[in-house]
Amino acid sequence: MRPDFSINVIFTLLSALLSVTFTYGQDIQITLGPDEIGQNQAWTITVSVQNERLKSIDNFPDIDGFSKAGQSTSSQTSIINGQISSSQSIIMSYFPSRQGTITVPAFKMKVNDQVISSPGKKVKVGAPVTQQRQADPFRSFFERDNTFGAPPTEFIDIKEDAFLALTTNKDEVYIGEGFNAILGFYVAEDNKAPLYWHEISKQMSEILKKLKPANCWEENFNIENIEGERITLNGKLYTRYKMYQATFYPINTEPVVFPIVPLEMKKYKVAKNPSFFGQNRQEDLKTFYSKPKTVKVKELPPHPLSKQVAVGDYRLEEKISSTALQTGKSFSYDFIIYGEGNISSIEKPNVKNTINFDFYEPNVRQNIRRDANRVMGSKSFSYFIIPKEPGEFKLANDFQWVFFNPVKAKYDTLKATASVIVEGESLKNEVIESVDGGSFYDRINLSDNTLRATADDRWLTILMNSLILVMLAGSAYLVFKK
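The structure corresponding to this sequence follows.
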């Protein structure tokens, strides 16, 4: 056997071993983008999984100074020295909102049930850079305007079958009644014009400044990734790309007005006579405009509480620690309002202390879910209550909550259904006793009605008598002197 052959075999084996070690050494990793970018360039965070399927991943972090521009995926499979390795990656792109140094703080992400850490970094954002095409030694040959004497390429503009629209699910609502609004880009299934997003993050920032009404409470659906969904409009198939979605709750009777907003898209003209050599499409920009939209708002029907009731479709759920109680011993009661509406605006029931119960300020918890064009959830008011009188009591006498149901167009009341039985001694006199007034009442039986002079009264009597004697003595002196 030749020595160089043995060396080559050993080198090959070592290389294979090192390759396998590198490939399988780290299964999951987070890779941050470059240290410096231009303001018009994207910066990325990449999560990669080696030799394992990417089953689950947390949301990518929000970074002050960057806005999310969407995510993409990639996969790779390679065979090295007979060993098969694969990788899957998810890349989140960010666009800077300003120039300067942006700090990406340390963060953690849960990937495939494993918590992966990243130390963060500082990214320097400079002025926008010119996007240059990579040098191509054959470009001057294949893309001449007049190759082999041929005429210049003629490009034609294909009419697009697409539009931008803001839609609402209601045209008229009551004050406080929610309606859903969606800004979407619609592309027909048979559209032939090539269309692509253009600086979408920057455009959306400007669009939302114009679009969000000032006279409404907003529940934002927080769309981070623009994805297409198939819908049918007037019997025609479209792909709708939701760009923004929210449910709005008017706070007064002023109409909710959504103005016209523009969206700029990349659109390509195509060569009239495409060829194997040369450029067959030409980039252009096309601006789409939404139509204005107005939602009318009307007053609630007359009611003593019309200015303060919640509006929505609500139901009641109750929880009570016990229904067999003792006076002086507290129990817990949860009054839970759940349903569809502006959960954040729900106020606690108007509960006041009575001769039968003392009520303490409730602990409040709320849960809001935005799904399927609806905002639903619950708000829970947890009370601690001390019974003061024995007897059987219905909590409906203390817990009532009035709201307006826009579906039925009428007011409704949620009333407690729980009843309690209280045993023990009455505590209605507990307040009087707590100030230690009993010692006064105890002395009543030991006292009589005879008036007696006090020490201060005796001294006053002595003083008055002395003054009288002095005056008499003075008078007698004057008489004898005359």
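The helical segments are 3-24, 139-142, 200-211, 430-434, 438-444, 455-481.
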